[in-house]
Amino acid sequence: LIFEAPHKIAVEETAVVRPAAGQVLVKTMFSAISPGTEMLFYRGQVPEAMPVDATIDALAGEFSYPLAYGYALVGTVTAAGPQVDQAWLGQTVFVFAAHQSHVISKVGELIPVPADLPPQDAVLLPFMETAVSFLMDGQPLIGEQVVVFGQGVIGLLATRLLAEYPLASLVPVDPFPMRREYSLHLGANQALDPGAGGFEQQLAAAIQPDGTYRGADLVFELSGNPQVLDQAIACAGFDGRLVVGSWYGRKTAPIDLGGHFHRSQIKLVSSQVSHIAPRWRGRFDKTRRLQFAWKMLDRCRPQTLITHRFPISEAALAYQLLDEAPDTAVQVILDYND
User: Fold this and answer.
1) Which of 112, 219, 230, 293 has its CB surrounded by the most CB atoms within 10 Å?
2) pLDDT confidence band for 51 (50 / 70 / 90)
3) pLDDT digit string (tens) for 127-179?
């Protein structure tokens, strides 16, 4: 799959090559489209001269079109090159790789999928890892009042994880009814429409009904829309924490950092999954976080969030759907099983 230019997707055919020493060939079963990050590439909203992904070797070059992109793929090892343990053959593995039917990968880049985890769940590993990372950076506490702006797949996974905590309130916010329904199914107390009349009053009441402890203790901004930051700031209480997990690309918006933000001493926390926040590095590394993400996939089984499947030959329709009708989709995957 190639991003040729903004709003232009192509599928190219190339020969499948034999793996070299230390490499394997993976036949893809599923790859998952990241509806947040990949829409920036699809819409031409990625900053120029920026590494596509500084932590994935295959995506380390500077951004420019045409571009093969994607980072969530599950498949089966079908061939092994010299110096590779033959035990890899037949194993189901996860690979941080672009959308493609076959992948040549170094053995060290393979992540074995747990035997009892369906591949449709396993392909959502990076989205679960991101949700885990957001909660690590937000540090929710027992009894806190929490709001989550944005209920795309990562926002929904964050809501699902937060529902495990004994919180005073958990209130997701999203403009799309289908996503709000998912939020409630995953354990939210209420799910609100930011465009509804009286939204601010509804949100304040949902956070803390009697107004004793006004505002949210913890807010997550996961919508991908920089304009939502103002709403997120407005609902935070005194000394509240606001975790910004969205990557906005080149999108900008004016943000009010005046009276409420300044006088309430609200803390803005930038959260990015490519690395472990400094405060955790003494006890955590990416391997430990990834291992925990596997456990959460097994616990949550998020394939229920998959609303659409497309063969790679119809990938352009998948991106068009996410671009033009996001209210009808949550997670879209490409299916390579003939």
Assistant:
1) 219
2) low
3) 999 999 999 999 999 999 999 999 999 999 999 999 999 999 999 999 999 99
The answer, as to whether pTM is greater than 0.85, is yes
Among 91, 2, 28, which Cα is nearest to 337's?
28
**pLDDT greater than 90 at residue 210:** no
Query: Buried (b) or exposed (e) across 37-71, using 16+ Cβ within 10 A?
Result: bbbbbbeeebeeeeebbeebebbeeebeeebebbb
CB within 8 A of 148, min separation 6: which ones?
Answer: 155, 158, 159, 162, 170, 171, 172, 173, 219, 220, 222
pLDDT score recorded for residue 128: 97
Phi, psi dihedrals of residue 75, rounded to the nearest 5° = -160, -170
Q: Which pLDDT belongs to residue 212?
A: 84
Tokens representing residue 289 in the block:
């976080």
Print the SS3 string covering the chain.
CEEEECCEEECCCCCCCCCCCCEEEEEEEEEECCCCHHHHHHCCCCCCCCECCCCCHHHCCECCCCECCCCCEEEEEEEECCCCCHHHCCCEEEECCCCCCEEEEEHHHCEECCCCCCHHHHCCHHHHHHHHHHHHHHCCCCCCEEEEECCCHHHHHHHHHHCCCCCCEEEEECCCHHHHHHHHHCCCCCCECCCCCCHHHHHHHHHCCCCCCCCEEEEEECCCCCCHHHHHHHHEEEEEEEEECCCCCCCCCCCCCCHHHHHCCCEEEECCCCCCCHHHCCCCCHHHHHHHHHHHHHHHCHHHHEEEEEEHHHHHHHHHHHHHCHHHCCEEEEECCC
